[in-house]
Amino acid sequence: MIDFTPKDLPQQWRCWPARERPLAGLLACALILLLAWSVLLATGDWMWGTLTLMGMFMALIGFFLPTDVLLSSDKIIVREPLRVRSMRWDSIQLCKDGGDALLFIQQSARRSRHGRMQAPLGRGDLAHKRKRAIEDLWQRFKLIQSHADQSI
User: Fold this and answer.
1) What is the distance of C-alpha 123 from the center of its chain?
2) Where are the alpha helices (DSSP H) in the chain?
3) Could you give the C-alpha distances from 77 to 30, 51, 60, 65, 134, in angstroms and in order?
């Protein structure tokens, strides 16, 4: 396979929302602790407060822990805190811009969550470069694929 990855664009990065927005992270921690404490007081059992604390942390694990994104010539890989997902460029039908992330939708999955993958971009100037890198790779792959289809 031909390697068409541009060398001047980022090929991998780490997004860590809690580190990028420390005030929001502090507020989220305070709200989780407040909720767990109120459940503990309401039930009178420390176990329910602990379960509430763990449940809220698990619900926000993508915010508190880092996510790694890796671009290659044939696929995009997203390493989230509890799973690793990848999607081949040739299976992507649609790429939607969501501000801090890009949403990829596979051709076979119109309404299924299995055929969707979110790639975080982070914040600031680097987000624009990362978005450009992903869109450039996807467009280059589509162009190469369309030329290959025409030559057959």
Assistant:
1) 13
2) 17-20, 22-43, 46-59, 61-64, 125-151
3) 33, 32, 21, 17, 11
How many other C-beta atoms lie within 10 A of the C-beta of residue 39?
A: 19
pTM: 0.76
User: Residue 117's beta-bridge partner residues?
Assistant: 104
For the chain, state the CA radius of gyration: 20
Q: How confident is the model at residue 11 (pLDDT cuts 50, 70, 90)?
A: confident
**In terms of Cα–Cα distance, which of 84, 36, 88 is closest to 58?**
36
96 membership: H or E segment, kind and range: strand 92-97
> 14 CB contacts (<8 Å, ≥6 apart)?
66, 67, 68, 69
Tokens of 113: 């969550």
Please list, in sequence order, all residues whose beta carbon lies within 8 angstroms of the beta carbon of residue 75, skipping any fewer than 6 positions away.
Answer: 86, 87, 88, 89
**Hey, what amino acid is at 17?**
P
Q: What is the pLDDT of residues 77-107, one digit of tens each?
A: 999 999 999 998 888 888 888 888 888 888 7
